[in-house]
Design brief:
CATH architecture of the largest domain: 2-Layer Sandwich
Number of helices: 4
Strand content: 15-25%
CATH topology of the largest domain: Double Stranded RNA Binding Domain
Largest sheet: 3 strands, antiparallel
CATH class of the largest domain: Alpha Beta
Distance between the termini: 48 Å
Order of helices and strands: HEEEHHH
Number of domains: 2
Structural class: alpha+beta
Strand order of the largest sheet: 1-2-3
Helix content: 55-70%
Length: 125
C-alpha cells in the first residue's frame, strides 16, 4: 500500500466509527522499528474507547481495523447494552446494601425487559 492509500483508508474510519456511536473518533497508523505496525482507533470523549489493529503489513492492519469497525454494534444496541449493564449494577448495589425489595424489584423488571429486547427472537422450529 502507498502512503496515499493508507491515508485514504484512515480518513474513512472516523466516519464509520461515528456511525457506530463513537464520539469524536480518530484513526492513526504507526510504524515502529522491530515491531508490528498498528492502526490505533480511539475516542477520547467520556469513556476513552480504543482498539489496536496490529499486523505485519499496512494492508493487514487496515483490514483488521475495518473488520473491528464492521463488527461494532449499532448505536441503539450499544446504548441498550450499556443501560442493561447499569441496571444490573444498580440491582447488585441494592442487594449488597440491603435496599428493600420493593425498590429493587422494579429495577430488576426493567433490566429483564432490556435484556429481552437485546436477545434475538427465538427461531420458529
Amino acid at each position: 500500500m502507498t502512503i496515499e492509500e493508507i491515508q485514504a483508508e484512515l480518513n474513512k474510519m472516523p466516519a464509520a466509527l461515528s456511525a457506530a456511536g463513537w464520539a469524536q473518533p480518530e484513526a492513526e497508523f504507526s510504524l515502529r522499528a522491530n515491531s508490528t505496525s498498528v492502526v490505533h482507533l480511539r475516542s477520547w470523549h467520556e469513556n476513552n474507547t480504543y482498539h489496536f489493529a496490529r499486523g505485519d503489513t499496512p494492508a493487514e492492519c487496515i483490514a483488521k481495523a475495518w473488520a473491528f469497525i464492521k463488527a461494532l454494534p449499532d448505536p441503539e444496541q450499544a446504548i441498550l447494552t450499556t443501560y442493561s449493564r447499569k441496571l444490573a449494577d444498580a440491582i447488585d448495589y441494592g442487594h449488597e446494601n440491603n435496599v428493600p425489595a420493593k425498590l429493587v424489584d422494579p429495577v430488576r423488571r426493567a433490566q429483564k425487559a432490556v435484556s429481552d429486547a437485546l436477545l434475538p427472537a427465538p427461531s420458529a422450529a
